[in-house]
Design goal:
The protein has eleven helices and eleven strands. By secondary structure, the chain is α+β, with helices and mostly antiparallel strands. The strands form three sheets. A five-stranded mixed beta sheet has the order 6-8-9-11-10.
Length: 466
Amino acid sequence: MVLKKPFSYQWRLFFPLVALLWFTIAAMVTFQYRREKTYRSETVKNQLEFVTQRVVYAYEHNANLEPFMDFINEYFKQSVYNGARISVYNITTNELIYSLGEPIKLNKTEADKRPNFFYSEQLCKNGEVIVYTAMPYTMSLTEALAPDSTMWVTIILLALFVTIIAFISTFYIGKTVKLLRNFAKQAATEKHLDATFEFPKDELGEVSQQIVNLFNSKTKAIEESEKEHKVALAAIEEKSRMKRELTNNINHEIKTPVGIIKGYVDTIADDPEMPDGTRNHFISKTQEQITRLCNLLNDISTITRLNETTAAIPTEKLNFHDLVYTIVNDVIESGSNNDMELTFDIPLDCIIDGNSSLLNSTISNLIKNSVAYSRGTLMRLKLVAEDDDFYTFKYYDNGTGVEEEHIPHLFDRFYRVDAGRSRKAGGTGLGLPIVKNTILTHGGKITVRNRPKGGLEFTFSLPKSK
């Protein structure tokens, strides 16, 4: 019959270990018991042999045996030798000279000797007298030869002690193995291990803890890898979505000026007799749409270059004061500021690391945005703060600003607060996205908000030259 639940590792280790320890103790006890019994037997036999020799010695030296034998008799009565028998015979006359206890037969056979624990005989040197000594199995002798009761108590206590030690040792080993088994089961069925495994503070526990730590580290690394993979996939998907969105927006934005241009050109071509005033009007409108289309294509080229070469744009040491000064003068001289006041406040030694072309486009787009949509009278760019690595600038106008719901979307591509008015103003919808991407590409940051007194305020940072 197969057990439904086998013994745990602790018990499978405990029982053989205890059996081995008990076997070792039993072997040692057996050896010691035999050794002790042999020692005690030899002691008794030597003592009796000594008595025999003393009797022979006394006879050979014509000593009186009575006092000695009386002493031996009294001594034997109070010791384990009680019951010992000594007989002295004159072998010439077969006369029993002396006897202690029941006389021993003269010329005993082997059958007569066998019931005795000890039997010896010794002949005097003159060959006239023989001494027989025998020690039958008596109760006192049996007790004397048996091991001391304290020995059995010691053996039992020792067996209990080694059993307890074996139990404690196998308990900790079994506990470690049990924890490892639970860990293996959880590791095989669960992705995340919430349980805490507290292993014993020993070598096996340390090894087990290292295994758990390695598994947790591996699991964490796999999870991190999966997260990074998901982030990468999400980034790729987002990039693909933005490309699709950009392509769709570009198609939509290009169709409008192209359709208008085609309409004007077709109208002129279909009516050769068109009055010069009307023709010139259509040609002027066509030129405006062509300009708008060129601006759109330039902005698309810029935003595409910023997206695809984020960390590879060439930079150089630039004097930002001189760059802004040139842009402001060009805008004022060309009249593209539309009678709005344009000023700046930047130190002469404001040296940055940047791309001249992209920064020129950034400042120009901010100005164009204010001129086209702010309905204000003032534009201003100034340095407001600096630290060890960056300059911080503010650009603002005093126009109407935008509703707060539009603020988070101002940097979105082709986003327009008022689509109709934006198209009439000739905007491409990419000016502010170009501004943001340019600042980010340079390692800076940019934010936008409505000013409390009216108008939009852009705060951006650019890296100092090292």
